[in-house]
Design a protein that fits this description.
Layout lengths: L11 E4 L9 E5 L6 H10 L16 E6 L3 E6 L12 H9 E9 L5 H17 L4 E7 L6 H21 L7 E5 L6 H11 L5 H15 L1 E8 L5 E4 L6 H20 L8 H10 L17 E5 L5 E6 L4 E7 L7 H22 L1
Parallel strand pairs: 2-4, 2-5, 5-6, 6-7
Antiparallel strand pairs: 1-3, 3-4, 8-9, 8-12, 10-11, 11-12
């Protein structure tokens, strides 16, 4: 397996598949130039979306290891992979080990061939692993109007489900997402995929509900800081605008925090303190090299308060509160500390 996409972002790794046998896997498939590599590079390696125009087509399988509250590997397969070949033992092994299969369709291209390929893949994948979640990313919708996006989604959904019914394939775990690397839609879609792979999701949601209920919090997200994937949120309704504000707030907080990062390698006392706290001392990652977790609070123009506090293992709790909650901020932080401890206990149970 090779990697032709340049330097990697700290915390992720493109590795041969044999090194991640025991890590849950998410497969990514689709025809050539559909956007699989672009999604991986933007989400996991902080590549600017416009730079993905120069990425070469995937010629061999590659694996990106994601390390956060849960560890999993995203396995990207070339577009020419033959899913109907019964002798492809490597593909069957991946189907067996994977909890989800993401199939990417280029919405700006004729997708008849993609749908035919998708049907073959679903048929084979469900035969090998009936529990695998099939996630269809209707990608590159940034070039379509809102009406065309919805029309494409309806058309693709209808065609895929009708073909599966004709083959007698009922109750296939199948979801459809409109995505683009030029907005937050691909992050939200990938978050939904990841959440289905987290056995502790219900527990995390219940913990967030309790924190919101007793702290006057309107909405809470538990984000992976690096990828902007939210691993859980409370049960209150979510709108895209709130999600976008929270992800932007993470970027701003990390950027501002890096302005005041101390070089621990030149400060023995702080270096010893970080070692005692068990923190990484890699100066390239300002979000993890301090003994004190990063945090930030800001007031929006509409009067709402954004509050961020770093949690365990690269997670951040991002909350949206009304201004009436600010006089009780000590209570909010007290409850969040209990939430942090519960997260740590939950993480230790999964190790």
């Amino acid at each position: 397996m090779t990697d032709d996409h340049g330097p990697l972002t700290e915390g992720y790794d493109r590795t041969p598949q044999h090194s991640s046998h025991h890590i849950p896997k998410i497969m990514m498939m689709g025809l050539r130039r559909c956007g699989k590599s672009s999604i991986c590079q933007v989400m996991f390696h902080n590549m600017p979306p416009l730079d993905t125009l120069y990425i070469e087509s995937t010629s061999s399988p590659s694996t990106t290891v994601f390390s956060s509250f849960i560890d999993f590997a995203v396995v990207e397969l070339p577009g020419q992979t033959n899913a109907v070949d019964p002798g492809n033992e490597e593909l069957e092994r991946l189907f067996t080990e994977s909890g989800a299969l993401i199939y990417v369709i280029d919405s700006q291209d004729e997708y008849i061939n993609s749908l035919s390929n998708l049907h073959s893949i679903i048929t084979r994948a469900v035969e090998v692993n009936p529990k695998i979640n099939i996630e269809v990313f209707i990608h590159k919708v940034d070039g379509l109007s809102e009406d065309f996006r919805l029309d494409a989604q309806r058309d693709i959904t209808q065609r895929v489900t009708d073909e599966l019914l004709d083959d007698g394939l009922l109750n296939v775990p199948l979801s459809f997402h409109l995505t683009s690397i030029f907005d937050h839609s691909v992050y939200e879609a990938f978050s939904r995929v990841v959440q289905k792979q987290i056995p502790q999701l219900a527990t995390l949601e219940n913990l967030l509900n309790v924190v919101c209920q007793h702290s006057g919090i309107e909405k809470a997200f538990l984000f992976d800081i690096k990828s902007k994937i939210f691993v859980a949120t409370d049960s209150s309704p979510m709108d895209v605008a709130t999600y976008e504000i929270c992800t932007d707030f993470i970027d701003i907080t990390v950027d501002m925090d890096s302005l005041y990062t101390i070089d621990h390698s030149q400060t023995p006392a702080l270096k010893a303190a970080d070692t005692a706290f068990g923190n990484e001392l890699d100066g390239t990652d300002p979000t993890f090299n301090k003994s004190k977790p990063i945090g930030s609070t800001t007031r929006l123009n509409n009067g709402l308060i954004l509050y961020l506090q770093q949690m365990v293992k690269g997670l951040a709790l991002v909350c949206l509160m009304r201004k009436e909650s600010m006089p009780k901020i000590a209570l909010v932080e007290y409850n969040i500390e209990f939430f942090r401890n519960a997260l740590e206990q939950l993480r230790l149970l999964t190790v």
